[in-house]
Design brief:
One of its GO terms (molecular function) is hydrolase activity. The protein is of the alpha/beta class. It contains 11 helices and 8 strands. It has an 8-stranded mixed β-sheet, sandwiched between helices. Helix 2 packs across helix 3.
């Protein structure tokens, strides 16, 4: 075990697979990240005898970066995760997602409930409930801006990535993000997540992603320093869960909860993995 390259869904993925023969935990990162997001949680999980699988999602890290917008549709992202689980012969797993990884986790739990034993959603609530109020539309201004192909890429790169640094509030891993996004095709691949899955009409109350209710236990986690996600969208997600639902607010952390509150999140995760529904 360790980091390896797996082929699935027509692409190659860099996947960290570590730990023992215990229950599996799948960790899904978001924008503009990689499996490195989970570097504080993985040792804690392994020490508790879990098997941990943390892929670089398509377009990020060392995984393949297809170029066209349509290659980043949600159904393909879910297919990627299923292909990774199949390649590793994992029938079912607990899932933890952050940002786009949370969106994928919601879709995975709704569409393939037999593969997800429980789900922890960090920062991003259920896709069908995301634009639940005007405040969230205001916070999500960047999603509309990212729709402009070429314009967004140029603006984000300008002046040593000044816009990215200001918008994200210079998070812990900003220099890693800049280095990763500066690789050929990487920035466009990252922006294609928004272009493929967040149509402009969603801001006006148009049809978004509709998914079946999630039947497994779900813990929604939001941090009060998040610059992109409001609390209302996470609270509204409980209506999309037919199984046990619980909510936790983390104080004093920004959007990247695994890096801003590593100990608190690790302890919360370990408790969630063993608590009864």
């Amino acid at each position: 075990m360790g980091t390896s390259v797996l082929t699935g869904n027509g692409l190659s993925f860099s996947v960290e697979d570590t730990g023992g023969n215990g229950p599996t935990v799948l960790l899904l990162h978001g924008f503009p990240d990689s499996a490195a997001l989970w570097r504080n949680q993985i040792p804690k999980l392994v020490a508790a005898r879990y098997r941990v699988i943390a892929p670089d999602l398509r377009g990020f890290g060392s995984s393949d970066r297809p170029g066209e917008v349509e290659n980043y549709r949600m159904e393909l992202l879910v297919g990627d995760v299923l292909s990774i689980l199949d390649a590793l012969e994992v029938r079912s797993t607990a899932v933890v997602g952050h940002d786009w990884g949370s969106g994928i986790g919601w879709a995975l739990a709704g569409l393939s409930p037999e593969r997800v034993t429980r789900f922890m959603a960090l920062s991003v609530g259920h896709p069908s409930s995301y634009f639940t109020d005007l405040r969230q539309r205001e916070l999500s201004w960047y999603m509309l801006f990212f729709q402009f192909i070429g314009v967004a890429e140029e603006a984000l790169r300008r002046n040593d990535w000044a816009l990215l640094r200001e918008w994200t509030n210079n998070p812990v891993d900003i220099e890693r993000y800049v280095t990763d996004l500066d690789r050929p095709g990487a920035l466009t691949a990252a922006l294609n997540y928004y272009r493929a899955n967040v149509p402009p009409e969603a801001f006006g109350g148009g049809a978004g992603i509709e998914l079946p209710p999630v039947t497994c236990p779900v813990l929604g986690v939001w941090s009060d320093g998040d610059m992109a996600c409001g609390e209302a969208q996470m609270l509204a997600s409980g209506k999309r869960v037919s199984g046990p639902w619980r909510y936790k607010r983390i104080r004093g952390a920004g959007h990247w909860i695994p890096l801003d509150a590593p100990e608190e999140l690790s302890n919360l995760l370990l408790d969630f993995l063993v608590e009864s529904p």
